[in-house]
Amino acid sequence: MKKKVISAILCGAMVLGTVCPVLAADDKSEDTKTEAAGNSAEGKKIALVGKAAGNAFFEIAADAFKSTVEAEGGTVETVYPETATADAQIKVLDNLISQDFDAICISANDVNALQAKLEEAMDAGIKVSSFDSAPNKDSREIFVNQAGTKEVAQALMDAVLDISGGEGQFAILSATSQSANQNAWIDAMKTIMEGDDKYSKLELVDVVYGDDEPQKSTDQTAALLQNYKDLKVICAPTTVGIAAAAKYLQDNGSECKLTGLGLPSEMQEYTGDDADHSCPYFYLWDMQGLGKLSAYTTIALINGDITGAKDDKFTAGDLGDYTITDADDGGTEVVLGAPLKFDTSNIEEMAKLY
User: Which of 4, 109, 311, 342 is least surrounded by Cβ atoms within 10 Å, i.e. has the fewest?
Assistant: First the structure.
């Protein structure tokens, strides 16, 4: 099976030096169980639950999710909790369960706290998928992972190593303390550091949380600079956090540099490998592709084409064929692809896309 890592539009925009694979019309295996394009979600009703309103990353993915489902004949209701907390998401879920949805796709604010409510949804016959940030394995049927946990962590650690010059203090500015994806990446970063001597001269001095709020992320950045005078790099694996930190560092002429996961459109003015810019380079993935893959995965669940079991196979439209694999938490997942690097060579073009 071929995996299409990024969408056709993204492949066309990036100068990668290789040809982006395109799924041929007849490139479909006999064991693929998808229905004809355009009607696979006919009459289906899906709830898409975000962490909180105002997250540009989620909104881009959500738009792609909705347009994909609608093109297949279904409907999507995008719902945001009042705050980026588990309690607020539980209230949202409690309301959705009584509304006869075929599926709920959620970006979880907490790994474990949503379990009882998501199990209630599944017991009621509602299919539960997740993307971006997964609830625990018992709270979902499948997770759509934007990139492998180890791959993201490796990219971030190598960026910190490079930008710091191979030694010195660095800190991590995360989203919420219970965010599943953030914690998984941070834990993997620590494991990578401990397992390779090339990181031995780096010191992780603090992990702080901006709760995916711009002002709190700004305040946390200021506090890091105040508390650690020799801080060389801040790594922010959150689109809200990295944008807030980038602005603060650059506005204040800080020598501390930044990397992490961000949106090109929000990071363009801060990206550059010189003293005038706070962020030499950063990473993310194809958010439109993530939204599309999440939509096709959820539709496949609803139709019974997949159950979420390891080795289940399905076709995600023009993204191509996918196989469900084991996730690090003992559940299962579908992985979109590797993280993409954004720097001065491509950020202007990519900022036009998202």
Answer: 311
